[in-house]
Amino acid sequence: MNGWQHRHIIDLASFSSEDYAAVLELAERFRSLPVTGARKLPALQGRLVATLFFEPSTRTRSSFELAAKRLSADVMSFSPSSSSLSKGESVLDTARTYVAMGADVLVVRHRSTAVPEQLARDLDAAGERTVVLNGGDGLHSHPSQGLLDLFTLARHFAPDHPSPEALQGKRIAIVGDILHSRVARSNLWALTACGADVVLCGPPSLLPDDFSAFVESPPPGQSFDPVAQRGTIRVERKLERALPGVDAVMTLRLQKERMGQQLLTSLSRYHRDYGLSHDRLKLCGQLVPVLHPGPVNRGVEMTSALLDDLSICLVEEQVRNGVPTRMALLYLMAAAESAAEPSLVSRSS
Ligand code: CP
Fold first, then answer.
1. pLDDT digits 0-9 by tens, 268-301
2. Ligand 1, residues 55, 57, 77, 257: which to mutate, most atoms within 8 A of Cβ?
3. What class has domain 143-317?
4. pTM
């Protein structure tokens, strides 16, 4: 855990191989610890975590709140519809209100790209010690989802030792609405950093050609790449070309709320061309796991039969892994702030 440099967590572009290893190692430890019910870890005792979700969420918000509680933090959540936003209060003033109440961590989701980063800058400029964790901003980034997906894949490929090396040389297909997906962008940084080769597949309206150059080395705004060697990215238009030989398939929700124009002729045509089913997966040439960040449009991104087949579909496993992954992030942020590493010994509350 030494060497953790991230005060705020906004995206994964600056994550090093050691950072991924630290998150996965801690997530695996937290996953196997008996911290359910009354048993908790004292690591964040006395700390206050506020979840400021200006956009709807089921998984990310609940998962962060549960993760914080399992580390003994106090948790405050915020509901935009019943907040003073409706009286014209700004996002920054809302955040500063929670900081004034003593929040140590703000987990922020917003429909506009860069809101979490701007909040982090404003808090730093004001000399506040509160840290910001991006819970998903616009099309930009969803770092905790990228990390829990990485953890899920690493556990699948190497159940006894889920580390970044488990992804080395693996081929992962990401299918669907990549243009509107912050999850895809975070996964591209994480998977290539761990040496996986990514095949993107979707229609041109949802997957521009230049996504093959999405990951830059060094990453934007950095003088060097914190990762020694990254995997590759390839763009394909047809599942028949994308799926053969892959080790896992991730499909993405069609983000109708972010589509400003008619980008698809019809959902049934999309399902015909890009929907996953047991039959379609035969193109892979081997039995491979299917991931989806959720929520799923049943019968669009994949058939209901595939979604409910837990021997192939890891959607519930991803949700399960979200809690220890977010515990790892909260722990690392707290450890970076403390003179001594917070305790990992569990206690009964
Ligand atoms: N995967 C994800 O971000 O889900 P929620 O929108 O439910 O948080």
1. 899 999 999 999 999 999 999 999 999 999 999 9
2. 57
3. alpha beta
4. 0.95
